Amino acid sequence: MNETGQLHGSCLCGGVAYRAQKPVGHASHCYCTMCQKQHGAAAGSYANVAAAGYVVERGADLITEYASSDHGRRGFCKICGSTLFWRSTQAPERIAITLGTLEPEYDGPVQRELHTDTKPAWLPLR
Q1: Residue 77: CB partners within 8 Å, gap ≥ 6?
Q2: Which residues form the CENP-V/GFA domain (predicted)?
């Protein structure tokens, strides 16, 4: 994946579109139970980028946030429910955008697996 340029993404209904400036600090799969519940999947998959380079191009009024903990907020489209990002209140200079909302799909490496202690046993082996 090119380290310069931008990432582009949108929600399921197309109401929200965003762009994020590269480089990606790291990409991750988070297996915490909050990510599992929000995504309805084994993990939440994210690209960590600078918050200053994250721009909502369309549908800012459709984004709502949920404070899932005292240090984390999850942004999603209030129409279709697509998870768009996770951000830490302790590190406001960074934002983690969801890999599944990127167009074209993310082609960089996933360097981190977080909260592997709650990684579901039903996941297939690598």
Answers
A1: 11, 12, 13, 15, 16, 59, 62, 63, 64, 84
A2: 7-107
**Residue 85 bridge partners (DSSP):** 75, 97
pLDDT tens sequence across 60-115: 999 999 999 999 999 999 999 999 999 999 999 999 999 999 999 999 999 999 99
Q: What is the 3-state secondary structure (H, E, C) of the chain?
A: CCCCCEEEEECCCCCCEEEEECCCCEEEEECCHHHHHHHCCCCEEEEEEEHHHEEEEECHHHEEEEECCCCEEEEEECCCCCEEEEEECCCCCEEEEEHHHECCCCCCCCCEEECHHHCCCCCCCC
Q: Hey, which CATH number is domain 6-115, 3.30.1330.10, 2.170.150.70, 3.30.1360.140, 3.10.180.10?
A: 2.170.150.70
